[in-house]
C-alpha cells in the first residue's frame, strides 16, 4: 500500500481546539432553514441532513475548482482528502491514516470488499461452494452486491434470520451462532461475514464486537462491518470491534453533504490487493490513493469534514452529546407514539440509536411491503409527514399481530411537534376507519 503520511500525531490538533461559541436555537433553525417547513421530517436515517454552513463550505470548494481546475487538482484536492482521512482516523481510532479511504457511500465500499472476495474465488484462494454469511436484514443494495459478486463467482450465501421484534441482543447472538454452524456443515468454509452495525429496516443495533469474536473463533477468514448508519449515531472504534473492513456514511448522521463515506481496511498483506471499482490513473497506488481520484467529478462532499467537526463542537458535548440527546429523544418519542397507538417498540431502548421502530395499529391493515409504501406516501401527501414504514409478516397463530412499524429518526433539527403530527395523523386514520385496502382503490 502506498504511504502518504506517517505522522499519526497530527490528527489531534484537527479536533482539539479552543471551544467555539455554543449554537443558539435561532442559529440552529437557520442552519436547517432550507428544509421544507411544511414537512414533519422524521426520516433522517434515509438521506441524512446538511447544515447551511456546511453547504456553503462545499460551494466554496466547488467554486475553487471551477475557477482554476488545474491549480485545484495539483495543490488542493489531495491534501484536502488527506485531511478528511486524518479526521476519520481519529474518530474511529484507526492505527494509521493509510487504513482509511474516502469513497462515495457504503455501497461503493461494499463493492470494493466484495470484488476482492470475488478475485479470491477466481484465483482459487477460495473454492466454489465456500460460503459468505450475511444478515437477512442487510441493506438491500448490499444483499444485491453479495448476489452479484459472491454468488456469481460460485460462492454459497447464508442468510442469518434474525427475530423481529427483538427483545435482547442475546437473541441475535443465538441466531448468528446457529447460522455459523450451519455454514460450516459438510466441511464448507465460511470465507466472509458481512455484518451490519445498525440494520436499516427494521432498525436494530447489532452486537458487532461479540459477533466478530464469534467469527474469529470459528475461523471466518474476512469480516466486513456495514456501519452505514453508524458514525455520528453510535461510537465507532474499529480496533475494539476487530473487523477487517468497516464502512460508514458521513452524510447520514455526521452532517456531510451527500455523498461521502469511508472504508477502513485493517493493515494486512491482503490490503494491497484492494482496488476501487473505477479504474483510473492512480490504479495500483493503494486503495486510499486510488479512491482520491477516480476521474473528473465533484469531490466537494468529501472535503468539508473539518467544517463539520467545527459545527458539531458548537453543541454541548460535541458529537457524543448529539448522539446521547438524539438517542434519548427518539426513545422518548417512540414510547409516546406506542402508548398513543396502543402498540410497542420493535426493540428495547438500548438497541436503538437515533432511530426506533414503533408498532402501528393493527387495524390499519398493513398486509404487504406494497401496503407499507402506499401508507407512507399517504402520510406524506395528506398529512405532510415523512416516515418509512416496515412490513412484518405475521407469524402463524398470532392474533391481531402488529404488521407495520414506523421507523422514526431524531436529529438536531427535529421538534416534538414533528412526532405529534405523526401521532395525530395515525390516530385520525384509525378514527376514520381507514385501512390500507382503501389505498388500492
Automatic annotation (TrEMBL):
Q: What class of enzyme is it?
A: isomerase
- Keywords for this protein: Isomerase, Pyridoxal phosphate
Q: What is its EC number?
A: 5.1.1.17
- Residue segments, region Disordered: 1-30
Q: What is this protein called?
A: Cysteine desulfurase NFS1
Residues forming coiled coils? none
The Aminotransferase class V domain extends over 83-375
Q: Which organism is it from?
A: Handroanthus impetiginosus
Check the record and name the InterPro entries matching this protein. Aminotrans_V_dom, PyrdxlP-dep_Trfase, PyrdxlP-dep_Trfase_major
Q: Name one Pfam family in it.
A: Aminotran_5
GO MF annotation list: isopenicillin-N epimerase activity
Amino acid at each position: 500500500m502506498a504511504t502518504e503520511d506517517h505522522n499519526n500525531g497530527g490528527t489531534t490538533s484537527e479536533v482539539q481546539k479552543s471551544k467555539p461559541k455554543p449554537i443558539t436555537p435561532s442559529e440552529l433553525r437557520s442552519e436547517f432553514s432550507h428544509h421544507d417547513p411544511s414537512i414533519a421530517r422524521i426520516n433522517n436515517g434515509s438521506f441524512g441532513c446538511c447544515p447551511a454552513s456546511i453547504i456553503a463550505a462545499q460551494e466554496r470548494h466547488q467554486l475553487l475548482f471551477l475557477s482554476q481546475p488545474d491549480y485545484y487538482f495539483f495543490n488542493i484536492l489531495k491534501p484536502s482528502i488527506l485531511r478528511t482521512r486524518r479526521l476519520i482516523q481519529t474518530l474511529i481510532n484507526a492505527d494509521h491514516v493509510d487504513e482509511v479511504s474516502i469513497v462515495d457511500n457504503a455501497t461503493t465500499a461494499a463493492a470494493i470488499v466484495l470484488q476482492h472476495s470475488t478475485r479470491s474465488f477466481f484465483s482459487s484462494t477460495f473454492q466454489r461452494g465456500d460460503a459468505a454469511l450475511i444478515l437477512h436484514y442487510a441493506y438491500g443494495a448490499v444483499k444485491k452486491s453479495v448476489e452479484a459478486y459472491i454468488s456469481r463467482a460460485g460462492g454459497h450465501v447464508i442468510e442469518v434470520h434474525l427475530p423481529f421484534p427483538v427483545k435482547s441482543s442475546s437473541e441475535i447472538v443465538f441466531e448468528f451462532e446457529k447460522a455459523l454452524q450451519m455454514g460450516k456443515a459438510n466441511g464448507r468454509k465460511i470465507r466472509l461475514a458481512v455484518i451490519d452495525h445498525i440494520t436499516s429496516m427494521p432498525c436494530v443495533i447489532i452486537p458487532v464486537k461479540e459477533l466478530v469474536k464469534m467469527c474469529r473463533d470459528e475461523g471466518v477468514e474476512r469480516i466486513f462491518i456495514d456501519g452505514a448508519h453508524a458514525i455520528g449515531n453510535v461510537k465507532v472504534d474499529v480496533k475494539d470491534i476487530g473487523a477487517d473492513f468497516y464502512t460508514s456514511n458521513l452524510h447520514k448522521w455526521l452532517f456531510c453533504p451527500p455523498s461521502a463515506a469511508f472504508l477502513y481496511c485493517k493493515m494486512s498483506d491482503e490490503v494491497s490487493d484492494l482496488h476501487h471499482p473505477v479504474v483510473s490513473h492512480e490504479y495500483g497506488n493503494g486503495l486510499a490513493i486510488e479512491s482520491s481520484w477516480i476521474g473528473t467529478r465533484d469531490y466537494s462532499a468529501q472535503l468539508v469534514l473539518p467544517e463539520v467537526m467545527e459545527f458539531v463542537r458548537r453543541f454541548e458535548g460535541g458529537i457524543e452529546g448529539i448522539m446521547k440527546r438524539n438517542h434519548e429523544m427518539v426513545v422518548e418519542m417512540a414510547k409516546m407514539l406506542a402508548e398513543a397507538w396502543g402498540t410497542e417498540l420493535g426493540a428495547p431502548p438500548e438497541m436503538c440509536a437515533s432511530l426506533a421502530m414503533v408498532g402501528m395499529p393493527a387495524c390499519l391493515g398493513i398486509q404487504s411491503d406494497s401496503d407499507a409504501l402506499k401508507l407512507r406516501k399517504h402520510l406524506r401527501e395528506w398529512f405532510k409527514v415523512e416516515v418509512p414504514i416496515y412490513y412484518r409478516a405475521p407469524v402463524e397463530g398470532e392474533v391481531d399481530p402488529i404488521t407495520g412499524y414506523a421507523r422514526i429518526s431524531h436529529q438536531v433539527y427535529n421538534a416534538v411537534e414533528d412526532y405529534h403530527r405523526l401521532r395525530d395523523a395515525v390516530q385520525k386514520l384509525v378514527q376514520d376507519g381507514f385501512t390500507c385496502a382503501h389505498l388500492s382503490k
